[in-house]
């Protein structure tokens, strides 16, 4: 077994254990492998190991990898980084899901970028910190943004996404996210995704109801030297 395969297997086993400990079916969870700064060849290796959901933080990297790996047509590409409005068209061309919609202008730009009848899956990013400079809307503002997205015919509201703050326990942060997710589901019952949990806190995220986990270096290994 390769090192990559071993890391993937180990994480999947931990995810399954955490799901069962929370009284959940591991099959309910989607594991997204975040491949930022890694070459497209790593995505090809992951695909050979059965990975079908990959995530990128930067539009340029997302676009380049999707273009290079177009033959792997069953891959689903998740954009999970902060999105600039002027890059909405490029993001829409390459992403199957955008986890980081945090303002109406971005939602509008993604909608305007539609070129066919395909729906783009989007999530409302929630800022769980007190820092207004961080990506995401406040929990209080999330329902209004969700309703705005629902009025855009080319976007499909899927749920919420957040990153746990460093100065708060993951359990507390994800409990607050779950409360927002429940409120969004009251607006649209189909918006049942909760994108939460990374390498260091996915166990707590699963316990709080996360459906989509964003796992990077624990699977991919250290980022390659970019210098």
Topology:
Blueprint: H1 3-21, E1 30-34, H2 40-48, E2 53-56, H3 59-68, E3 76-79, H4 88-94, E4 97-101, H5 104-112, E5 120-125, H6 142-150, E6 155-161, H7 170-187, E7 193-195, H8 202-207, E8 212-215, H9 217-220
Parallel strand pairs: 1-2, 1-8, 2-3, 3-4, 4-5, 5-6, 6-7
Helix pairs in contact: 3-4, 4-5, 6-7
CATH class equals: Alpha Beta
Oligomer: single chain
CATH architectural category: Alpha-Beta Barrel
Number of domains: 1
- What is the CATH H-level superfamily? Alanine racemase
Report the CATH topology name: TIM Barrel
| Terminal-residue CA separation | 30 Å
What portion of residues belong to β-strands? 15-25%
Which structural category do the helix and sheet elements fall into? alpha/beta
The backbone outline, from C-alpha atoms, is globular
Give the biggest beta sheet. 8 strands, parallel
Kindly report the spatial arrangement of strands forming the biggest sheet.
7-6-5-4-3-2-1-8
Number of helices: 9
Mean pLDDT: 96
N-to-C SSE string, H for helix and E for strand: HEHEHEHEHEHEHEHEH
